[in-house]
Amino acid sequence: MADPSLSQTRPEEETRAEPTASGMSRRRLLGTAGATGLVLGAAGGAVGYAAAPSGPTPLTSVGATKVPFHVKHQPGITEPLQSHGHLLAFDLAPGAGRKEAAALLRRWSDTARRLMAGEFASEGDSDVARDAGPSSLTLTFGFGHSFFARTGLEQQRPTALDPLPAFSSDRLDRARSDGDLWVQIGADDALVAFHALRAVQKDAGAAARVRWQMNGFNRSPGATARPMTTRNLMGQVDGTRNPKPQEPDFDERIFVPEQGEPAWMANGSYVVVRRIRMLLDDWEKLSLREQEGVIGRRKADGAPLSGGDEKTDMDLEKTDAQGNLVVPINAHARITRPDQNGGAAMLRRPFSYHDGIDADGTPDAGLLFVCWQADPLRGFVPVQRKLDRGDALTPFVRHETSGLFAVPGGAAEGEYVGQALLEG
């Protein structure tokens, strides 16, 4: 766990500490409380208590968790799902080009480094997250197809960034799709996430304007008695078949190799972002058995209908007493299996969303689908095409926005994200 005493230190406060009524500094008090308070184990449950010698004891140590900024792959890809997130795209302002984009990515990278370390933004901080630790904050940056023409870098645009094909389930709002630049923010505290959102927006200044922005959420850390795969707003366990970093071919499937093309994308990845509205009123009219048939898994625990537990391999050939396939031929879990799609795999890292209730009482809610892969033409596209041809889930979802972005590798010490592209 990271030390909460490092959180939220303004640049001008780094050499002085704020005294408390007892004379103990705020930084020392927070450090003492964080070190001796309730400690959470990997399962998210309390594993021990100790009394703090002075001052309040924090309820949890969730806020102290820190993710490093300077890493091989950008943060926000392989980290556990955070409970709060913001996705937003920017378009470069009229007249802004490569020079302005480079300065913006430098500002964003510096802000991300500071906030992820639990520090204040470099200047003009809003104090929104002053009392919190970094709370697993991550910021991730990417480039859209249109960015390269805007900056005169068409020769550096990857072929993997070619526009996605049209799909029959698409009902896309183009104003809330695509964009020159993409930012993903995730944190386990809503105020920490919002604080980062405001900092990113202010950093954009006159160089870029927000094209669209979406807000999402997941289950909070420690909300379950043991670590569990998350559930979506349909109540289904969602993400069972995700590739795991410990698998030998994980990097090959998810990240561009160090010697890959173009060179500036080394250790990077491609992200597909889709706002998928769930038609919950229609879904909730189905019986439990019908819902499970649509997905191909038990709702209670995510186990395949062919038997076992969540991690059991699905038996696609198993039949019931009448000779019918136990896992229906058009079940979502059957269609999306990598071994049914030529090995196509993607790392899904979504957020749920709820944007209110329409005038007719229909909830505007669903999934902010975010998936990562080394090449979307081998990852997302073949799976989505197959879903288009007969997924039992299709009548209950509607794809309303879409975006594809190239996300370069992590920034080294002293560098900013995308520097190899913008200064190469």
UniProtKB/TrEMBL annotation:
Cofactor: heme b
A single cellular component GO annotation: cell envelope
GO MF: ferrochelatase activity; heme binding; metal ion binding; peroxidase activity
Class in the EC hierarchy, top level: oxidoreductase
Domain Dyp-type peroxidase C-terminal stretches: 229-411
Subcellular location: Cell envelope
Record-linked Pfam families: Dyp_perox_C, Dyp_perox_N
Main location: other
Region (Disordered): 1-26, 218-250
Any one GO biological process: iron import into cell
Reaction it catalyzes: heme b + 2 H(+) = protoporphyrin IX + Fe(2+)
UniProt EC number: 1.11.1.-
Keyword rRNA-binding: no
Spans through the membrane: 29-52
Start and end residues of each Dyp-type peroxidase N-terminal domain: 74-218
Keywords: Heme, Iron, Lyase, Membrane, Metal-binding, Oxidoreductase, Peroxidase, Signal, Transmembrane, Transmembrane helix
The record's free-text note on cofactor binding: Binds 1 heme b (iron(II)-protoporphyrin IX) group non-covalently per subunit.
Family the entry assigns: Belongs to the DyP-type peroxidase family.
Described function: Involved in the recovery of exogenous heme iron. Extracts iron from heme while preserving the protoporphyrin ring intact.
Protein name listed in UniProt: Deferrochelatase
Gene (UniProt): efeB
